[in-house]
Write a structure and sequence with these properties.
RiboL-PSP-HEPN domain-containing protein, mainly alpha, elongated
Length: 188
């Protein structure tokens, strides 16, 4: 049972990572498609990209017959670009999601199946994710002082805006998978 639970959590982490990567690909495709359409439209009416960046852009909600979100073309492109708000959001959401699955579901089950208490199942990577998650959820993605206690993910200092690069998210996934492999070897 322990082995199955550990592998199930690994699957959850890797599935969440796949969704993260899918989102990044969608941002890139959407941005490229948007820029191509804008370029064609700009040529047609004689606008420059600078002028286009100031034109309002809205997401229409057909079920409500109104616009729920508006921004300029420039704001849209910035948000969809690598390092923009959307990239930061999905990276931060990945961290929050993985921690929630671990802390609220798998940690207790895995510990119990190993004959341990939940708090006996500790690993620096999971503690670091907890500290980062606290800053994400409770401090609007601004690093709290406690983030400097991270042992593995020594990325942020107090007051930093928390945003991850693709490489950092990949490394986090590797650290979690290595921890799960370590747990698996301890029961074999």
């Amino acid at each position: 049972m322990t082995k199955e639970l550990i592998n199930e959590f690994k699957d959850v982490v890797n599935e969440n990572y796949g969704i993260y990567l899918d989102c990044l690909m969608c941002f890139l495709i959407t941005l490229n498609d948007f820029e191509e359409k804008i370029e064609r439209y700009a040529k047609k009416i004689g606008y420059t990209f600078v002028n286009q960046d100031k034109i309002p852009f809205s997401h229409y909600s057909p079920t409500r017959d109104k616009y729920l979100h508006t921004e300029t073309h420039g704001e849209f492109k910035s948000r969809m670009s690598k390092g923009g708000k959307n990239y930061n959001f999905v990276g931060n959401t990945f961290i929050i999601s993985v921690y929630a699955f671990w802390e609220d579901h798998y940690r207790q089950k895995i510990a119990s199946s190993m004959g341990k208490k939940k708090n006996e199942l500790k690993e620096p990577i999971m503690g670091d994710i907890r500290l980062i998650r606290n800053s994400l959820v409770h401090h609007k993605a601004i690093a709290l002082k406690e983030i400097e206690e991270c042992e593995v993910l020594q990325i942020f200092k107090e007051g930093d805006t928390i945003c991850f690069s693709d490489e950092q998210i990949f490394e986090i996934v590797e650290h979690i998978n290595n921890y799960m492999d370590k747990l698996l070897s301890s029961i074999e």
